[in-house]
Amino acid sequence: MQGIVTKSTGSWYQVQTPDGQRYDCRIKGKFRIKGLTTTNPVAVGDKVDFEPEPDQETGVIHKLYERRNYIIRKSINLSKQAQIIAANLDQAFLVVTLASPRTSMGFIDRFLVTAEAYDIPAVLVFNKLDLFSDEGLEVLAAYKEVYENIGYPCYEVSALQGTNIPLLENLLKDKTTLLSGHSGVGKSSLMNALLPDLELRTTEISEWSDKGMHTTTFAEMYDLPYGGRIIDTPGIRELGVIDIEQQELGHFFPEMRQRMHNCRFNNCRHINEPGCAVLAALEDGEIAPSRYDSYLSIYNGNDTRA
Ligand code: GDP
Ligand code: ZN
């Protein structure tokens, strides 16, 4: 039988068949990606073949289909191991807030670089619109100017009051979307606004515990009632890009990518080279200083998460 992985714990994988039935599966055999050592060979969003076990809601995965894309996170210890968070994504939403807590532009930029590196279209969702003061609305306008100018769609919503949720539903329809954002921005509230039946989730989790399954899970996929799927990532603070070469980094900033062919040197680092088209655009105010700061910060290996 064929299905899609909707949840994984590292040893157990929940697989959903096209008719909506779910099986708790284990893996048989080795699934390795060349050049990547992962702690989990199969991830949420993966398409797999599995053999159901007679008279049970369990099965054994024996085939993994090729991934269209995938997104990983580095393990916390600095080993080469990585964890695949999700596979086969159409887009990624980053939920951000401008107050309590404020998401920094540095954090947003790291997320966007990650999304560019994996070739996954990114959308910024500004939540807690109901809390915005006049000053907050000015900050929002400033953020939107920076990000809409370089092609990232921005939406402002209130998960609590339901404001503009239908706009998000339009974007989500018939697609597989990763939902990301640091803790406190309202991801759970947004999931509840988008999926009114979500209470199911808590009972399901306890069912897994009852079966003695290890329940630390980093991503979980839900079907949307109007078509499409959403992958929630509770407990994932930040996505990670493994091994972006300094030389490649500019390619993951669309406003730099678009201009760098005009740099005098084709190995320009866009730091202090003469004839650099990126620095010229920065000087002319065509590239946002905050974005350039993020470039330098990531280039130099600094942590801009604060
Ligand atoms: P998560 O950590 O990203 O899952 O965030 P939660 O959904 O748990 O929300 C964190 C806090 O922000 C909770 O107290 C929510 O009630 C609150 N919150 C979430 N969305 C909104 C919103 O749109 N407006 C307001 N005022 N509060 C919100
Ligand atoms: Zn340059």
Overview in brief:
With 306 residues, the chain is of the alpha/beta class.
Model description:
It contains 8 helices and 13 strands. Strand 4 and strand 5 form a beta hairpin. It is an alpha/beta fold and 306 residues long. The chain folds into 3 domains: 63 residues, OB fold (Dihydrolipoamide Acetyltransferase, E2P) (Beta Barrel), CATH 2.40.50.140; 163 residues, Rossmann fold (3-Layer(aba) Sandwich); 54 residues, Probable gtpase engc, domain 3 (Ribonucleotide Reductase Protein R1, domain 1). The model has no long low-confidence stretch (mean pLDDT 87). The structure holds guanosine-5'-diphosphate and zinc ion (ZN). The site of zinc ion (ZN) has 8 residues, from helix 7.
Itemize the secondary structure elements and their pairings.
Blueprint: E1 2-8, E2 13-16, E3 22-27, E4 47-52, E5 58-64, E6 70-74, E7 82-87, E8 91-96, H1 105-117, E9 122-126, H2 134-149, E10 154-156, H3 165-172, E11 176-180, H4 187-194, H5 200-210, E12 220-223, E13 229-232, H6 254-257, H7 277-283, H8 289-299
The site of zinc ion (ZN) has 8 residues, from helix 7.
